[in-house]
Amino acid sequence: MQEIYDFLKKCGTYFLATTEGSQPRVRPFGTVDIFEGRLYIQTGKVKDVSKQMQSNPQIEICACDGGHWLRITAAAVLDDRVEAQKHMLDGYPDLQSMYKPGDGNTQVFYLKDAVATFASFTDEPRVIHF
Most-buried pick from 11, 57, 63, 98 (CB within 10 A)? Predict the structure, then answer.
């Protein structure tokens, strides 16, 4: 999981895909954290992406670094604990003007039953389950 976290951090921005009804929705994201042995992402409760993940937790993430990319499929599981929110936000001081642990808007989701695939045009894909 550390390798996956490191790749996402290096990329800075990755793309998160959700669904709204039968329509795919994709947007740039930038938060990632490892907390209690799980990979987490963060958003705001008021955002459509939050509603989409709660309605259908099946997500995909895609990140690219030069000619290498990472795709992750997983279920996003909401973790309402303030400790998980604080751990995430401690790593993102720039977000602390918009989000506060326990503010009723900050949400963190961990990835469950995740499958990460590292790939490129030249290397065989490498799959990690976490």
Answer: 63
- Strand segments (E) across the chain: 14-20, 23-29, 33-35, 38-44, 58-65, 68-79, 106-120, 126-129
SS3 94: helix
Geometric angle at alpha carbon 31, from 68 and 93, rounded to 5°: 130
For residue 25, give the CATH number of its domain. Answer: 2.30.110.10
Distances (CA, A) of 78 to 3, 21, 38, 44, 69: 23, 20, 12, 12, 26
Query: Which amino acid, residue 91?
Result: G
The number of beta carbons lying within 10 Å of the beta carbon of residue 93 is 8
**What residues make up the domain containing 65?**
2-129
pLDDT tens per residue across span 7-41: 999 999 999 999 999 999 999 999 999 999 999 99
pTM for the model stands at 0.96
Contact criterion met (CB below 8 Å) for 72 and 115:
yes
